[in-house]
Amino acid sequence: MRIIRFVNDGFAQLAAVTDSGQIFALPQSDFLALVKEADAKAISPLALVFNTIDGSEAFKGQVEELELLVPIEAPEVWAAGVTYERSRDARNYEATEGRLDASTFYDKVYDAVRPEIFFKSTAARTVGPGGEVQLRSDSVWQVPEPELGLVLNAKGEIVGYTIGNDMSCRDIEGENPLYLPQAKVWKRSCSLGPAIRLAETVDNPYNLQITSRIYREGEKAVEGTANTNQLKRKLEELTEYLIRDNELFDGTVLLTGTCIVPPNEFTLAHGDRIEIEITGIGKLVNHVVGAGN
Ligand code: DO4
Ligand code: MG
Question: Which residues form the Fumarylacetoacetase-like C-terminal domain (predicted)?
Answer without folding.
Answer: 90-289
